[in-house]
Amino acid sequence: MAKLILSMDGLVLKELPLSKERTTIGRKPHNDIQIDNLAISGEHAVIVTILNDSFLEDLNSTNGTYVNGQPIKKHFLQNNDVVELGKYRLKYINDTPSQAPSPDFEKTMVLRPDMMRKPPADAPAAPARGLTETQAGFRAGASVPAGTSMGGGLPPSPPPPPAPAPAPTAASQIGAIQILNGANAGRELELTKTLTTLGKPGLQVAVITRRPQGYFITHVEGASFPVVNGAQLDAQAHPLNDHDVIEIAGVKMEFFIKR
Fold first, then answer.
1. Residue 149 burial by CB count (10 A; 0-12/13-18/19+): exposed, middle or buried?
2. If you ran DSSP here, which 8-state letter would residue 169 be given?
3. What's CA 143's distance to the chain center, in Å?
4. CA–CA separation, 216 vs 224, rounded Å?
5. What is the pLDDT of residues 104-163, one digit of tens each?
């Protein structure tokens, strides 16, 4: 589990595990990490942790949030990053191996027109489900086993019926989103990555995560939270169901299970 090491002037004050999906930092008592110092805003910053990854976002604080000496608005935290809040330091420690080398992982993918492909109008239709001719008996072009009579006598025993395909599980399903409004209406994006970021940085950003239990959407950045089926979400991860309608940064899109 990732954690933060809080220090000031080189003196370690405490270790703070990132056990929640949303960890707030600020001067006010209701924050998960309270730093009672006038240089810290009442609600200074927030860390959103999804799977093994954490995003840091400055909440329009008065004195700003710095990572490794650089001012940030939103930052993908990496092992040994040092978050600077006034005189205080929060060192981010995450010994979990990064998933970045995996082809099924993408840290951020902001929805842009050039990332979406619309199927061509002349694309061949998908084959109808069910048995095809060659699935009903011998395969086309298959040789007849030796000793099998093709003339008189008893006909060969019919092959056993094919076993029914197992029902798809949440882990094996592939979801997608389709844009419903604007210039990109009708375009689709498959959600094959572990983490897909959607929205407009600086305005509103959310992430859709693919987990063994299915797909979940979580707010990451912006004053407004995503809307699903007309209801505004809160800070917690929200499971997505087939044909849910999502609205992020003024763009409406439909989530659906593709296969």
1. exposed
2. P
3. 48
4. 18
5. 333 334 444 444 444 455 555 444 443 333 233 334 344 444 444 444 455 566 666 666
